[in-house]
Design the sequence.
């Protein structure tokens, strides 16, 4: 059975993430969406909120689940018997950063492969930060996040204003 991990902060999940999740689900028996910590970031949404938003966005997908892990990505992958980590690539700068991460993760655990998936061009300009910025300035971000979570994101940002 092939198991892949799709890791990220998902603060919040976007249409770009969902595109990678859907395509990954066609390639692997099971895809585990892993909400992990990026020590360089201070998330707006709590872990539970981020998990809930992802779950709401993937109700039609039967071979994927969401989990949280507070540690190294490679340790989580090993714990879940996953053989691959999927990363979406939007730009050349993504590649430079992700190449370094892939090498680092390979050094930490040589059995875990990083697979890069090119982001759909329609979503190449999206990031979680862009969503939060547009939302906080009252702009229309309905094309950027799954429709099931639009209202949750809008309300959270409205509360924080
Ligand atoms: N479509 C749209 N946006 C995308 C995207 C896609 N396909 N892929 C990534 N993005 C966005 C993300 O939303 C994020 O936006 P933001 O910077 O505004 O928050 C940005 O691109 C960067 O994404 P990513 O590179 O996946 O970073 P991340 O912070 O979401 O996740 C972790 C990084 C959590 C996977 C990484 O820090 C990690 O593995 N942490 C665990 C500890 C560890 O093992 N560290 C490595 C060894 S030191």
Sequence:
């Amino acid at each position: 059975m092939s198991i892949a991990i799709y890791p990220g902060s998902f603060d919040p999940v976007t249409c770009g993430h969902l595109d990678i999740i859907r395509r990954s689900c066609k390639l692997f028996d099971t895809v585990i969406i892993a909400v992990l910590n990026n020590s360089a970031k201070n998330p707006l949404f709590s872990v539970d909120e981020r998990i809930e938003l992802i779950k709401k966005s993937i109700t039609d997908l039967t071979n994927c689940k969401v989990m949280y892990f507070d540690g190294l990505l490679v340790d989580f992958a090993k714990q879940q018997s996953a053989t691959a980590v999927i990363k979406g690539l939007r730009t050349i700068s993504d590649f430079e950063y992700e190449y370094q991460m892939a090498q680092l993760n390979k050094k930490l655990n040589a059995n875990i492969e990083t697979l890069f998936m090119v982001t759909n061009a329609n979503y190449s300009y999206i990031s979680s930060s862009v969503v939060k910025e547009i939302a906080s300035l009252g702009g229309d971000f309905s094309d950027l996040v799954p429709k099931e979570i639009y209202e949750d994101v809008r309300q959270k940002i409205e509360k924080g204003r």
In short: Residues 3-160 form a domain with the Rossmann fold fold (CATH 3.40.50.620). The CA atoms of residues 13 and 54 lie 6 Å apart. The mean pLDDT is 96. The helical segments are 15-27, 47-57, 73-79, 92-108, 128-136, 150-160.
